[in-house]
């Protein structure tokens, strides 16, 4: 690949068929030849080395608020993708980010999520029990519904609304994360987001009158040492973000992880023989095929990244999927290997914006894979073709067909 021009623009997004099918050879080439690469068509810098990605994500001086980017920078495209309401924490800088994240952290503690494991296990087992054999689409049967059902349990919303919930969150995610969408393409997302806002308004109102122990109830009740609390509008925006950030990503972890297991049958066998490896196996799946390909920051000043000078207000895309396969950090990075000892992947981002829902996502994936392997002692890919979705910065399967037998 050394003589070919460096990829840029759409070639580095899932709109390009080669990148969509397998971005890793392209990212390896880029990391080797231009680890800090200027993507001129999209006005952004692409960072692919593990250590550079980690450095950028953890550096508190970088911004995320798109309005702080240069007028022509990639981030500016995201100024219009918010679908109403307050700015979400994903695009907030300090001190606003520190304040809101501090409050919501108190309500979203790993221990509270752990208590939901039996309920999420039951959801996963019930979904897997309903699968009709021999041939099924694992995305439709498990990867799609499980995160929507789980987040509904965590938030404390009615089980009967879950189908609607998933549709709304898919539509608003597609609008929120796709800066290339036309007004027309964004319309269903804006409508879905509005419907979600009205829905959450009623839920918050109810919790204000009747306190509850679910996540919405905890957000209504939370108060810090200085007596600061979340407003109704902030809770509403946070609930919207939890759906947007938590649904499709976890669907993609389950889809990509299943494909990784099918492509490495010996690793699937290892996991079947030692189910206690599951938490570690999910970490390796997150490293091997990251559901969120890019996170991003804005330079606060003139900076140097990996020896390259970058101006103020520039968009810097940290390619999490490339960092996770950096051969300087991970020997044989393209191999799924549950014996790999050090798997400190970047798939949940890092620093102040480190994924709030990582604990929940891990739990759902662990229970989903366990249920699948338990029901089907024999599981293999079907001959029907798979298909990837086309949402920029995400990597996930739309359909993945399997053959299973008991
Ligand atoms: C496998 C599934 C998931 C992946 C791969 C993932 C990945 C990410 C990434 C890469 C970020 C940005 C971090 C950064 O820029 O440094 C993020 C932020 C976030 N995620 Fe996740 N996520 C997942 C699941 C979830 C779930 C289940 C929830 C909640 C229910 C969630 C809620 C959030 C929130 C609220 C943020 C914004 C945090 C902030 O800006 O302070 N995510 N996630």
Map the helices and strands.
Blueprint: H1 17-21, H2 24-33, E1 36-39, E2 44-47, H3 50-58, H4 96-105, H5 110-114, H6 117-129, E3 135-137, H7 138-143, H8 145-155, H9 162-177, H10 183-209, H11 215-221, H12 232-263, H13 265-273, H14 278-288, E4 294-298, E5 303-305, E6 308-310, E7 315-319, H15 320-323, H16 358-375, E8 378-381, E9 387-388, E10 397-399, E11 401-405
Helix pairs in contact: 6-8, 6-16, 8-9, 8-12, 9-10, 9-12, 10-11, 10-12, 12-14, 12-16, 14-16
Bound molecules: protoporphyrin IX containing FE.
Protoporphyrin IX containing FE binds next to helix 12 and helix 16.
Describe the structure in brief:
The protein has 406 residues and is α+β, with helices and mostly antiparallel strands. It has helices spanning 17-21, 24-33, 50-58, 96-105, 110-114, 117-129, 138-143, 145-155, 162-177, 183-209, 215-221, 232-263, 265-273, 278-288, 320-323, 358-375; strands at 36-39, 44-47, 135-137, 294-298, 303-305, 308-310, 315-319, 378-381, 387-388, 397-399, 401-405.
Molecular structure report:
The protein has helices spanning 17-21, 24-33, 50-58, 96-105, 110-114, 117-129, 138-143, 145-155, 162-177, 183-209, 215-221, 232-263, 265-273, 278-288, 320-323, 358-375, and strands at residues 36-39, 44-47, 135-137, 294-298, 303-305, 308-310, 315-319, 378-381, 387-388, 397-399, 401-405. With 406 residues, the chain is of the alpha+beta class. It has one domain: Cytochrome P450 (Cytochrome p450). It starts with 16 loop residues before the first helix and ends with a strand. It binds protoporphyrin IX containing FE. The site of protoporphyrin IX containing FE has 27 residues, from helix 12 and helix 16.
């Amino acid at each position: 690949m050394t003589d070919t021009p460096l990829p840029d623009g759409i070639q580095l997004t899932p709109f390009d068929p080669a990148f969509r099918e397998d971005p890793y050879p392209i990212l390896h080439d880029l990391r080797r030849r231009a680890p800090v690469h200027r993507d001129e068509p999209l006005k952004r810098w692409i960072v692919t080395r593990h250590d550079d990605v980690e450095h950028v994500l953890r550096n508190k001086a970088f911004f995320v608020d798109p309005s702080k980017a240069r007028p022509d920078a990639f981030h500016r495209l995201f100024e219009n993708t918010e679908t109403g309401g307050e700015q979400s924490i994903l695009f907030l800088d300090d001190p606003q980010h520190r304040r809101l994240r501090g409050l919501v952290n108190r309500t979203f503690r790993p221990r509270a999520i752990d208590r939901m494991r039996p309920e999420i296990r039951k959801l996963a087992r019930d979904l897997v029990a309903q699968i009709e054999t021999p041939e099924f689409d694992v995305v439709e049967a498990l990867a799609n519904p499980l995160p929507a059902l789980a987040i509904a349990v965590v938030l404390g919303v009615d089980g009967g609304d879950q189908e609607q919930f998933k549709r709304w969150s898919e539509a608003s995610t597609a609008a929120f994360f796709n800066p290339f969408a036309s007004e027309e393409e964004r319309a269903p997302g804006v409508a879905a987001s509005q419907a979600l806002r009205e829905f959450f308004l009623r839920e918050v109102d109810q919790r204000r009158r009747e306190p509850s122990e679910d996540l919405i109830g905890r957000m209504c009740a939370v108060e810090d040492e200085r007596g600061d609390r979340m407003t109704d509008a902030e809770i509403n925006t946070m609930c919207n973000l939890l759906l947007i950030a938590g649904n499709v990503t976890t669907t993609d972890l389950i889809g990509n992880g299943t494909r990784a297991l099918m492509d490495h049958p010996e690793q699937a066998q290892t996991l079947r023989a030692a189910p206690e490896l599951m938490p570690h196996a999910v970490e390796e799946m997150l490293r091997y095929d990251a559901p969120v390909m890019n996170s991003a920051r804005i330079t606060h000043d003139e900076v140097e990244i990996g020896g390259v000078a970058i101006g103020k207000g520039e968009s810097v895309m940290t390619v999490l999927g490339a960092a996770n396969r950096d051969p300087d950090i991970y020997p044989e990075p393209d191999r799924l290997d549950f014996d790999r000892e050090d798997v400190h992947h970047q798939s949940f981002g890092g620093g102040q914006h480190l994924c709030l829902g990582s604990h929940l996502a891990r739990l759902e994936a662990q229970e989903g894979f366990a249920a699948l392997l338990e029901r089907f002692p024999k599981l293999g890919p079907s001959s029907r073709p798979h298909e990837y979705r086309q949402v920029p910065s995400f990597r996930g399967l739309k359909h993945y067909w399997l053959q299973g037998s008991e």
